[in-house]
């Protein structure tokens, strides 16, 4: 089966801040993956290269922001280099899995298997709360959010509250998202913000996650 048939290769559609998060997560997962970390050929771009790309994109994104432009030739080049290595990495993992008849190469490595995404549409959304995580960055006055994937969700509803919540009315809708990572920008520094998220699918809603707070730096 082809690479695109097994893995959701949507990295070219990611905005630079989202690609930075993906590279960081994938580098961590592949470093902890027993086979990828110990058996992958040295020439294949992996954990170290992903982190180098993450730093390069973050650096060029900061320069573009300082110039008040959406992108620069240097930022586009940094993203293109990362995408090329991501494709090489994924292709290699597919070939190893096929050659060794061992699908463990394809699991818990940062990529989303396509079959799982397709199977989820005939399910009810999870009754469990999603695990929501927040950290500052990649740039000042920004917060990176990520949460557990619900295979039955068609989208996710994200809400935001500035300051400590005083009840349900404290939260406002930030948006309805199809991905499990987002960077929230233009926040007030040295201020508390709280976030929560829930799954949406088949005209039903999952439970709200625990509200996660963070002081913006």
Automatic annotation (TrEMBL):
CDD domains from the UniProt entry: FN3
PROSITE patterns, A to Z: FN3
Domain of life (superkingdom): Bacteria
SUPFAM superfamilies from the UniProt entry: Fibronectin type III
Gene3D superfamilies (UniProt xref): Immunoglobulins
Signal peptide per UniProt: none
Entry-linked InterPro entries: FN3_dom, FN3_sf, Ig-like_fold
Annotated Fibronectin type-III domain residues: 128-217
Name this protein carries in UniProt: Fibronectin type III domain-containing protein
């Amino acid at each position: 089966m082809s690479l695109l048939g097994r893995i959701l290769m949507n990295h070219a559609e990611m905005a630079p801040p989202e690609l930075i998060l993906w590279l960081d997560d994938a580098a961590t997962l592949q470093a902890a993956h027993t086979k990828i970390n110990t058996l992958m050929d040295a020439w294949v771009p992996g954990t170290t290269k992903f982190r180098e790309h993450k730093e390069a994109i973050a650096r060029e994104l900061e320069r573009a922001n300082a110039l008040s432009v959406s992108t620069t030739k240097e930022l586009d080049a940094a993203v293109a280099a990362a995408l090329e290595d991501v494709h090489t990495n994924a292709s290699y993992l597919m070939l190893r899995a096929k050659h060794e008849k061992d699908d463990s190469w394809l699991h818990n490595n940062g990529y989303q298997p396509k079959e799982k995404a397709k199977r989820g549409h005939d399910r009810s959304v999870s009754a469990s709360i999603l695990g929501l995580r927040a950290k500052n960055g990649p740039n000042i006055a920004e917060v990176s959010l990520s949460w557990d994937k619900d295979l039955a969700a068609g989208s996710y509803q994200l809400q935001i509250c500035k300051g400590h919540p005083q009840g349900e009315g404290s939260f406002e809708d930030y948006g309805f998202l199809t991905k499990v990572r987002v960077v929230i920008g233009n926040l007030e520094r040295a201020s508390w913000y709280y976030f929560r998220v829930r799954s949406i699918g088949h005209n039903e809603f999952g439970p709200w996650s625990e509200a996660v707070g963070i002081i913006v730096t």
